Amino acid sequence: MSDLTQVAPSVVTESRPARLILTVTVVALTCVLLLAPLAAVFWEAVREGIGASLKALAEPDARAAIRLTLTVAAIAVPLNAAVGLAAAWAIAKFDFRGKAVLITLIDLPFSVSPVVVGLALVLLYGTQGWLGPWLAAHDLKIVFAFPGIVLATLFITFPFVARELIPVMTEQGRAEEEAALSLGASGWHMFRTVTLPNVRWALLYGVLLCNARAMGEFGAVAVISGKIRGQTTTMPIMIEMLYNEYLTTAAFTLAALLAALALLTLALKSFLEWRHADLLAATRRH
């Protein structure tokens, strides 16, 4: 035992150069791979002056893309939050046949290419698709229209809320809910006063991730939207179109705005992580 005690400090001392090299390497790679590209986007956006950037954002097509992106996110995020909360509650609190299948289905958007998702939606809802004739007969248009963009975004962002809530709800168990029910609380009252407060930070965290993914989605939306300028072009699609037309200032200005929204989401996520950890520590102390 004494020999091991004497060797341990030597091992730690000898590993300091390795730790330093590893830390410097990770920081350098982070700067080169992540920070440098973002900095380049923001620099290119303002290189010709703030006035040029504001003028680019004031263009009707840019305003339409921003409005469409925010509208789609405003619809997709609450829907996926509600469905994700219900799915997480069912998986964490109840035992039923097919639970493993449900978990696998929730993870499906993580493994399927967004382009494949877009093509699948076109196959299902397109004019020549499985439901195309029925939709045409009822004067309903999904592909190359707003509903298709919402459906594609819903599919891609489906797992984020559920995946944040499932481990939290599973760890909490069922004791508190069962106690509330035994005291005469209704199901809704139990959910509102017991379940929801315990998972509120995880729910907000999942909503933020879902929102960031919804605003940044490109592949599935590009396929199903048809890229109709001013009508079905979200911010990521509009950025690509502007860049391909060599309108670099407009493209990078819109890209900088999208990146700024992502950074805001990251900042809120970090705040929630800090706040959630603080609350957990306070709970343990009491």
- Tally of separate helices: 13
Order of helices and strands: HHHHHHHHHHHHH
CATH architecture annotation name of the largest domain: Orthogonal Bundle
How many DSSP-defined strands? 0
CATH class (first level) name of the largest domain: Mainly Alpha
The unreliable regions are 4-13, 280-286
Task: Indicate how many domains the architecture comprises.
Answer: 2
What's the overall average pLDDT, rounded?
87
CATH topology of the largest domain: MetI-like fold
Q: What can be said about the biggest beta sheet?
A: none
Considering DSSP H and I runs of 4 or more, what fraction of the residues is helical? over 70%
Gyration radius from CA atoms, angstroms: 24 Å
Give the strand content: under 5%
Shape: globular
N-to-C span? 38 Å
Q: Look at the structure and name the CATH superfamily of the largest domain.
A: MetI-like
Helix/sheet category: mainly alpha
For this entry, give a set of tags.
globular; disordered C terminus
Strand and helix layout:
Blueprint: H1 2-46, H2 50-57, H3 60-93, H4 99-111, H5 114-125, H6 132-137, H7 146-157, H8 159-172, H9 175-182, H10 187-216, H11 219-225, H12 235-244, H13 248-285
Helix pairs in contact: 1-13, 2-13, 3-7, 3-8, 3-10, 5-7, 5-11, 7-10, 7-11, 8-10, 9-10, 10-13, 12-13
Task: Give an overview of the whole structure.
- The protein has 13 helices and no strands.
- With 286 residues, the protein is an all-alpha fold.
- The chain folds into 2 domains: 13-46; 49-284, MetI-like fold (Orthogonal Bundle).
- Helix 9 (175-182) packs antiparallel against helix 10 (187-216) and helix 10 runs antiparallel to helix 13 (248-285).
- The longest helix has 45 residues, at 2-46.
- It is globular, with a radius of gyration of 24 Å.
- The two termini are 38 Å apart.
